Amino acid sequence: MRTESFVEKELSHDAFLGGRLRIAQPRAGYRAGIDPVLLAASIPARAGQSVLDLGCGSGIETLCLGARVPGLVLAGLEIQPAYADLARRNAVENGEALEVFTGDLTDMPGPLRQRQFDHVIANPPYFDRTASTPARDPGREHGMGETCALADWVTAAARRVAPKGQVTFIQRADRLPDLIPAMVAHLGSLEVLPLIPRQGRAARLILIRGRKGGRAEFRLHDGIRLHAGAAHGRDGEDYTPAISAVLRDAAGLPFPD
Questions:
Q1: Domains of the chain, first to last
Q2: C-alpha to C-alpha distance for 64 and 216, rounded to whole angstroms
Q3: Where is the signal peptide (predicted)?
């Protein structure tokens, strides 16, 4: 776990959303790809609503959401103090109001336990370390390697979401057998949106959403392709227009109706 603050030489400053955000990230350690941006784009939040990001890291998904939907009340929970400090710094430098709590999702700080939110979002660690190799960097390992069961992430999210509020996770597709029973135990109106690398490939990631007190039937949506074509055939990026708009123009990525 990273406890001491990052020094400047340890950081890079990376553009997100076509330069709308400038995010400081560790050069070595957990670095965000497009996953948190896709998660943020999928949240149907409206001005005035509140959002809690569990495991917020350096704040990327929360700040991406705030850049797309002005007027949100944003909060994050991060177990690693150095990353929590980085999220606070990134919020200030990007002109966003983000309240970051430092603590464990299984033992949240008291003030956070007293609150509920319209949306709870999370990008939990993807890898079950009983079947994979840990990363060498402690910060990266904490972001990628599961130390807390997915069921605990879902339980924590369900406790913090308000009645009729939504919980949305992004996760590897092969973790669906773990996620669905955990969500069914606490949430209703479950929806799954597969994220497909490109034509002819199986989904590697999924977005999954549930509503507290929801009663709608389970929905498995048609997948969204991230890249154009069946293979990478040219230099540079080849995202589909819809995904490019998310990454460059802060567009939304709504679940299909």
A1: 8-249 (3.40.50.150)
A2: 29
A3: none
How many CB atoms are closer than 10 A to CB 175? 20
Spatial contact of 159 and 185, defined as CB atoms under 8 Å apart: no
What Cα–Cα distance (Å) separates residue 57 from each residue in 92, 103, 137, 168? 15, 12, 15, 17
Q: What is the pLDDT of residues 13-25, one digit of tens each?
A: 999 999 999 999 9
Distance between CA 83 and CA 169 in Å, rounded?
20
238: its two tokens: 């080849």
Task: For residue 101, report the phi and psi dihedrals to the nearest 5 degrees.
Answer: -100, 140
Contacts of 231 (CB under 8 A, 6+ apart): 198
Helix (H, G, I), strand (E, B) or coil at 111: helix
Tens-digit pLDDT profile for residues 132-158 = 454 454 544 444 445 789 999 999 999
Which parts of the chain register pLDDT below 70? 127-146, 232-236
Q: What pLDDT shows up at residue 217?
A: 97
Longest dimension (CA), the chain: 52
Per DSSP, the three-state class of 127 is strand
Query: 96, 88, 42: which is closest to 67 by C-alpha?
Result: 96
